[in-house]
Amino acid sequence: MNEIPPKTQKGRGAISNPEGRFEATIKTVEDDGWFRAEDDDFPGSTTPTQYFVEPARSVLTRNDSPDVPFSQSINPYRGCEHGCIYCFARPTHSYLGLSAGLDFETKIFCKDDAPALLAKELAKPSYQCDVIAMGTATDPYQPIEKEKRITRRLLEVMAAHRQPVSIVTKSALVTRDKDLLADLAKDQLAEVTLSVTTLSNDLKRLLEPRTPTGQARLAALRELHDAGIPVGVLFAPVIPFINDSEMEAILQLAREAGADYAGYVFLRLPYEVKDIFREWLTEHYPQKAEHVMSLVQQSRGGKDNVAEFGERMRGTGQYAELLRQRFKLTCRKLGFNKALRCQLRTDLFKVPGRAEQMSLF
How far apart are CA 337 and CA 232, in angstroms? Predict the structure, then answer.
């Protein structure tokens, strides 16, 4: 029997579904020689998306990493149907006994009770108000949000209690909540960053198959800006020889759409992601694959990935320095990041329940 090679699935980023790094067994699909119809449930068919409710005891995740600009975050969903092949959050599914491959983008866990849990956490005497970041691991505006509305309900809690929030997303769905975001923004309590990876629809369909187009994200950026919400653009990830040439064009269009600040992140390939990305690269860009990984490794000290703070977001070496200079010069030319980003306020925070209790006396 011969092992059957994985096949690309329409609308999915990952090609295969490898075991997580904590699994004790390894599975392979073998062809025993018996006939199978083309439409059988077999590698190559489209894996359906499944949704699960994830009960949680808390919703805020604390962070003390020195190279990210937030101390706490909320991820309303675990897993992401956007299917971005490069997503550094893919390995989190391994803790659930699932794969960082197709499982990550087809088995989505929804924290339905997140808004109620957030209200409880904000009411704790020990809570110290600080900006809450959303979109740090999985996108808060992935497709299921249209139905679940968990992100919107979280924003309703934040708006009621003047809790500052910073959102990063690839989805134009964020404009649905511009009423809440504008209400927060008028008191300097909200900002939104649109992540734009490419302007090529052909590349987008391979790289991040279930995301809106780059043009749709830029239109969303403009709509939010026009609503009075501070907006920025994130060119991420930068992938050598795949999308790196688009940096200047994306920054230019984002600036024209109203973005005031910009950032970029170099490709990160932690744990299982390095193998999933290599498989994708070999499938879709076989003639470029060796050169792409060579530049990645030149920027990662000869490795596929470096996890050290201060290096993991930008890389090191000649290629990484060239990217840094290009980004710096383009931002200077376009007027990005001319001043320090406006700090979101924390002094307007209202503890849930406190006003009602005080009114009794």
Answer: 10
pLDDT, mean of residues 42-53 = 75
Is the pLDDT at 115 greater than 60? The verdict is yes
Long-range contacts, 43-48 (Cβ 8 Å, 24+): 43/4, 43/5, 43/6, 43/7, 44/7, 44/8, 44/9, 45/9, 46/9, 46/10, 46/11, 46/12, 47/9, 47/12, 47/102, 47/106, 48/106
Residue 318 has what pLDDT? 97
- Cα distances (angstroms) measured from residue 171 to each of 153, 185, 331: 17, 19, 24
Q: Where are the alpha helices (DSSP H) in 51-177?
A: 102-106, 114-123, 145-148, 150-161
Cα separation, 311 vs 299, in Å, equals: 9
Contacts of 48 (CB under 8 A, 6+ apart): 106
By DSSP bridging, strand 72-74 and strand 132-134 are parallel
Structure tokens at 118: 């957030």
pLDDT in tens, 132-145: 999 999 999 999 99
% of residues, the chain, pLDDT over 70: 87
**Is the four-CA dihedral 229, 329, 70, 297 of positive or negative sign?**
positive
Answer left, alpha or beta for residue 53, where phi above 0 means left and psi between -120 and 50 means alpha. Answer: beta
Element (H, E) at 132: strand 132-134
For residues 117 and 58, the answer to whether their CB atoms sit within 8 Å is: yes
- Rounded CA gap, 85 and 92, in Å? 14
Q: What is the CA radius of gyration of the chain?
A: 21
